[in-house]
Task: structure prediction
Amino acid sequence: MSDEFIDIGSNLTHSSFAVDFGAVMERAARAGVTRQIVTGADLPSSRAAAALASSYEGALWCTAGVHPHHATEWGPGKRQELEDILSLPRVVAVGECGLDYFRDFSPRAAQRAAFIAQLEIAAAARKPVFLHQRDAHEDFTAILAEFRLGLVGGVAHCFTGGPGELEAYLALDLSIGVTGWVCDDRRGANLRNAVPRIPAERLMIETDAPYLLPRDIEPRPKARRNEPAFLPHIAQAVAALRRESPDAVAAATTRNAVRFFGLKDS
Result:
C-alpha cells in the first residue's frame, strides 16, 4: 500500500490514550499514518489539541470548536475564546460543530445557535469547517446552505448516510470523511452503497479513534479501542467498494486532506 495516510479525525486528547500515547503514535507511523488532524470537541479539548499538535510539528494538526453535545456551554465570551484558539498556528479547521438530534444532549435550539455562531466564525477566519450531523439532516443542510458561499470548505466528518444524503452534501460542495463504519456490513449498508459514488477529489478517511473500531478488524484489540494505526484497514475497505487499488485511495485521500486543511510541515 501507499507509504502515507492522513487521519483527518482522531481524538488523541481522549483519556484512553494517556497511558501509551507515544506507542500509539509509533504504531501509527509504522502503519504509514504520518499525519493526523486531532479533533476538538469543546473549548478545553480544543486547547489541549492545539497544545498537543504544537508538540508534534509535521505530524499533528487540530480542529477547534464545540460539538453539539456541548452546545449549552456556548455563551457570552465563548466566541472570543474560540477565535483565540483558532489563531494558534496548528489549528486548521473549525469544529467539530453541527447538529445531533439522536442524542439530544443539548437542546436543539442551543445546538442550532452554537452551530450558526461557529459557521460565522469559520467564514470570518477563512478556515474550513469539520462537521457533525446525526438525525438532523434537514435542519443541518438548511443552516449550512445559508452560509456555504462564505465558507472556504467543509467536510462531513464520520459520514454514515446513503446515496441520497451524499448527493445533498455534494450539492453543498462538501468533502466526505469515511470511518470504520464502512467495515460493518449491517450497520454500514447505506454508507457502503454511497462510497462508490463519492467523487475522488471529495474523499477523505478517518478513524475517529478511540471510537468506531472497525467491526471486522483482526486481531481485535482486547480493549476495543480504535487507534490511528488502523486507518489503512479502512482504506482497504473503501478501495474494495470503489473497485480501486488501496494505493489509489491512499494517494487521493492524502492529496485531498493536504489541500483541504492547508497542511504544511511546520
About this structure: Strands lie at 5-10, 33-38, 60-64, 91-100, 129-134, 154-156, 175-178, 203-205. The CA atoms of residues 8 and 37 lie 5 Å apart.
